[in-house]
From TrEMBL:
Protein name: Putative hydrolase of the HAD superfamily
Gene3D superfamilies assigned: 1.20.120.1600, HAD superfamily/HAD-like (3.40.50.1000)
Species of origin: Kushneria sinocarnis
Keyword set, alphabetical order: Hydrolase
Top-rank taxon: Bacteria
Molecular function as annotated in GO: hydrolase activity
């Protein structure tokens, strides 16, 4: 008997690939249009600095906003801006990045689906490694708890973000909560290893062989039918 569900966000509730492609290009171009730094510091240099920072501070590897902010700031100092201007342009570029980050098209079935699950008395948690803020997306009201696992320094596949959700929701045992997510490595495997059933949204059509209690779906809209089927078993 399922008592609760934990949900991934990116590529589970919306297609995140076009979103991130836009974010990456456009906030950098936005800054370049204002201060003309990209000739000296092309996008690849910004990406290289973020990767290096994530290696140097492995606990913060999942805190993507922090990685961008710190990399931008030191890069703008190296570009020759004083501390105050570097801080100003970093802050406004991050603001622009977050604005673009939230230009997502939530699948139209999602709000109704979450509402129906709540009406059935199920506990609902969101666990994300990304920096999408579901308050900003208007979905927060559907959840009992929202765990930004990257910012909490325990990004999936770390088991602690799943355990925190189960504890908060008061779930008696992991097999009574289903995790729903698209990533084989960050969603399916860790939840499965904890003993949670999993609805795997195979958004990239990877078609791994699913172990027992891992259910492959093409789209999150298929979740209610899966839950009804499991209920009947
Ligand atoms: Mg995802």
């Amino acid at each position: 008997m399922i008592e609760a569900l934990t949900f991934d966000l990116d590529d589970t509730f919306w297609d995140n690939r076009p979103v991130m492609a836009r974010v990456e290009q456009r906030h950098y171009e936005w800054l370049d249009a204002r201060i003309g730094h990209a000739g000296d510091f092309p996008l690849e240099e910004y990406q290289r600095r973020r990767a290096e920072l994530a290696r140097r501070y492995p606990l913060r590897r999942g805190d993507f906003t922090w990685l961008r902010r710190e990399s931008l700031y030191t890069m703008l100092l190296d570009f020759g801006l004083g501390a105050e201007r570097a801080r100003h342009w970093t802050d406004s570029t991050i603001e622009e990045m977050l604005r673009l980050r939230h230009e997502v098209e939530i699948y139209h079935e999602v709000p109704g689906l979450l509402e129906a699950l709540r009406e059935q008395g199920l506990g609902l948690a969101a666990i994300t490694n990304g920096n999408a803020d579901i308050h900003r997306l208007g979905l927060a009201e559907h959840f009992d708890i929202i765990i930004p696992a990257g910012e909490w320094l325990a990004p999936k596949p770390d088991a602690r973000c799943f355990l925190a959700a189960l504890a908060y929701l008061g779930v008696g045992a992991p097999h009574r909560a289903m995790h729903v997510g698209d990533s084989w490595r960050e969603d399916v495997l860790p939840a499965h290893h904890l003993g949670m059933p999993v609805a795997w949204i195979d958004a990239r059509n990877e078609r791994h062989d699913c172990p027992p209690h891992v259910h492959r779906l093409d789209h999150v809209r298929e979740l209610p039918a899966l839950l009804a089927r499991l209920d009947r078993q």
